[in-house]
Structure formats: structure tokens, C-alpha cells
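ingest -> validate -> predict -> emit
validate: passed (alphabet ok, no gaps, 317 aa)
predict: started
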Amino acid sequence: MKILLSLIVATLLLFGLNLYRLQSSTPDPVRAPTAQLEQKQLPALLPEQQILQIQQSNHRQFHIQWGMNPEAPFFILEGPDQGAGFCDVLIERLQVYLPDVRHRFLVEPQVRIRQRLDAKENLCYPCALYSAEPAAQQGRLFSKPTHYYRPHGIITRPELAVEISRRFGNPVDLAKLLQSELRFGFPPQRRYGKLQPLLDEHRLHSPNHVSFNTGKDASMLHLQMLSQQQLDVTIDYISSLNFYAMHAQRKLVFLPIAGYQDWLAGAVACPDNNWGQLAVLRVNAVIDRLRKDRALQQNLQFWFGEDLPPFPSEPAH
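emit:
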């Protein structure tokens, strides 16, 4: 009897040992290594990889809405020159180089476009003045510079141009001119780079500032007021005067501003949010092709002068 019991115990011990060995050789699905339990995270994408990801995801096709202000010759929205503004052509060439992007267009006054950018709505303005200074960016993201502008200048009537040159020099000392009795006005919704503080001071405090209720074609209205002697001086690009000269008979004169004669860089401005970052990445990805674009450069030289250079391409790495 004792022998039988010993055999039963031995058998049970051998069975238990074999069962233990079998379990230890099989991976335990519950007690996986800690590293396998942690959720995998995608690596941070480089800008080029973000662009490729968007291109490969048809169900996430990227949209850019372009703000277009009815202000010739930035945008020419009607008439025989329709579509020939330099911002018109810039957007047209961006559509060529970004065919996988769905482009939309919103026509509104400049002040409304600025309000939308301030509110970080998903909208870009293609013809902003570029600034690398954080204080001047005002919640916006800028693409790399797309092209050059000829800097703003003084526009006046021929007889006043002689007097202004005699009194304030040529190029013109703008600060001294703004302290004179000459009636001065400009479209308040526009921006004028480093000249903005001087102009705002005149607009707010000078008794000789002339304001017009301007919306559409504000620049052309100011030039018409010059011709009709309701205004003595305004400030604008040479492109605005060139457009005016194509459609008016009264001659006006452009005078450069002292200390403000370097080329100005233009750029695409988008809101400083996630969508804006992606939009700027898309534009920057084709920036060299845009800078070398013959159609865009010819249009810019038509409006700003044949000596306007293209923005230099970035050196190859």
C-alpha cells in the first residue's frame, strides 16, 4: 500500500514539473514587457515630411484661403486689366506650384482681411511686407520673402514737386514735410513699414491731415484727390502711380523718400496657428521656384520698374 501511494505521489510530482516547464516556455500574453505596453509615438516630422504626408493623404487635402483686397494694382478684379495685378499673378503662380492644394479666394477690404488675421482665422494674405522682427509680426507668420517691392515714395502734382524738392530735398525728408502746411493723406488701412509711426502721428495729430472715407480702390481715390487739388501730397508705391497714369490724363510725380530707398521684401502672411504653420511650410517649399518665375518677375517689373531685381535664391546645401 505504501509503495502504491509513493508511486502516485511521484507521478503527480512529475506531472506538475512537466506542466510548469510547459508554461514557462510559452510567452505570457498578459505580462508583456513594460516597453511593449507603452503607446508608440510618431517621431517629430521634419517640414519636408509634413508636406509629403499631406500630399499623400487625399482625404486630408490641404486648403488655403487667400484674402484679396479690391485695390489696384495689387488685385485688379474688373475691367480690361482684370487679373493683371501683381498679387493676382503671385497667387496664380502659387496655384501652379502647389497643384495639390485646394485654393479658395475671399475678396474683402484690407482692414477686414487684417481683422481676420488678428483673429487667427484660416486665411493668408499673399502681398504682405516681410518682417523678421517679432514685435512687427503681430501674431502673424511670414513665409520666406517671395519678391521685392520698390519702396514707397511721395506722390504729388508737378508744380508742388518742384517746391517740395526745394524745401525738403530730393529724396524728400518725410519728417519735415509732415510738419509743413501741405495737406497730406493716405489710405489708413495700408501699412508702410518703418514709416508707419511717422504717418500715424500725422494722421492722429496734424491739422493738415486729410482723411477720406475709403474702401475699394483707396489708392486711386487719393490720387484723384491730388489731381482735383483736394490734397497736396500722398504716399504710395510707384505701381499705384503707374496704374493711375494708364487711366487718367492728369500727370502726377513720384519722389523718393530719404533714408527709405532699399528694396522692400514681400511675403505671404498667415495666422500664427497650426494651420498657418502648415500653409507657410507649403509656400516655403516652392519659394525658389516662385522667385525664379519669369511671369511673376515680368509682372513686377511692369508695375515697379524694369530695374526691380528678383529676390535672390537661397544657396544650395
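The mean pLDDT is 84.
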